[in-house]
Amino acid sequence: MAPPPEPRRPYKRPAISDQQRRRDLALQAQSARRADAQARARALASSLLTTPTPPAATHRHEEEDEHEEEEEHGHNIADVAAAASKLRSSDARRWFARQIMLPEWMVDAPPHLASDWHVFARPSGKRCLVVSSNGMTISRVRNGSILHRFPSALPNGSKRDISGPASSYSILDCIFHEPDQTYYIIDMICWRGYPLYDCTAEFRFFWVNSKLTETSAGDPPSTYHRYRFRAVPIYECTLEGLQAAYSGSTSYVKDGLLFYNKHAHYQAGITPLTLVWKDETCSQYVIDTDSKGEVPNEQHLVLELQEDGKLVTSDDPPVVFGSLDKEFIQKSNLLAGNLLRFAVRDESVKLVDGKMQIGELQFVGKPNRARAFADSHSKALFQYAARHAPLRIDDLVASIQSNNMELESTDVEMQD
């Protein structure tokens, strides 16, 4: 008698990057790294409260830069926080941009989505850090500019509601959603002086929901509570959870989906343990637009010019995408550290061992002055794939279904 046919597995899109390998390395690295979380949180809170607003960081630039998302990387806060108050202009913008945990762009569906990941719909708006301490609350966007200075119902966030030591502080990672004047909390760095850097995402999300209910920060605005704070709905990345995040209704305008590895610590800078993914259904901004708000015929990249003329991404270590000769650099009055925008022709792009290789870059000009970092490699690859062979919602569903089949197969083998 012939054996029964194997159950049909869902089609999985072949991987085009080395994202999974780097994700494994990131998990290993964080388990070996136990930084002084208390000192890092204290230094960040102090800098958020006291550092002057960097010049040339206007709200107009923030809005323009909002959809050139998530390309920064970072270093330990404690190493540079003492000097943060002395920074000016682009240096201050770079420092503040490095304090937020930023996602890579999802170019391949991770294995074990259903068991190892959370997912939620990202609110559209200004990404910012919010700190409450000494009877005041301050929010700063990624370039260091103060967004709001206001009383809040967060711990020690207003003169009316100081409990415990006045210097006790809380730091929240938020997105300010303009239409309903609400701060949506997407992560928590510190609560009443207790740092959460070395806690897993699963634990931090639990604290966001439980601690927020202990306050009246979710209440409608009032004299001593100018803006409402709300936690975003977070789901297990099962088929049901993915569908709820992707298609479910929200009180805010969506700008893609965010995926968090459950075991990820809060790491300042860009990390493959958090991922952003977009399509036309869940975001207005999938393919980058030019200064006129139009999608250019060719893909654009923002790269950083180095001393030796190389053009690199914001990754650590950076990926080299090309170079400029000395004559062009001098003629164009360019300096090391400048961010430059380039157009990329499709025929000059190759994918080799999970990396983009670009044969020719066409200089377009400089991006807006508020921008702190070049594009990341994952963003460049996502933008390229979005134009030619995008990662679709069906690919994410197939990855979850494949994961479920593997778990069912394992269960059957264990029972046998």
UniProtKB/TrEMBL annotation:
It comes from the Eukaryota. SUPFAM superfamilies: DNA ligase/mRNA capping enzyme, catalytic domain (SSF56091). It comes from Panicum hallii var. hallii. The keyword Cell cycle does not apply. Belongs to the snurportin family. PANTHER family: SNURPORTIN-1, SNURPORTIN1 RNUT1 PROTEIN RNA, U TRANSPORTER 1. CDD domains: Snurportin-1_C. GO terms for molecular function: RNA binding. Transmembrane segments: none annotated. Pfam families: SPN1_m3Gcap_bd. Functions as an U snRNP-specific nuclear import adapter. Involved in the trimethylguanosine (m3G)-cap-dependent nuclear import of U snRNPs. Binds specifically to the terminal m3G-cap U snRNAs. This is Snurportin-1. GO terms for biological process: snRNA import into nucleus. It is found in: Cytoplasm; Nucleus. Residues 99-274 form the Snurportin-1 m3G cap-binding domain. Keywords: Cytoplasm, Nucleus, RNA-binding, Transport. Coiled coil: none annotated. GO terms for cellular component: cytoplasm; nucleus. Residues 40-51 have a biased composition (Low complexity). Residues 1-74 are annotated as: Disordered.
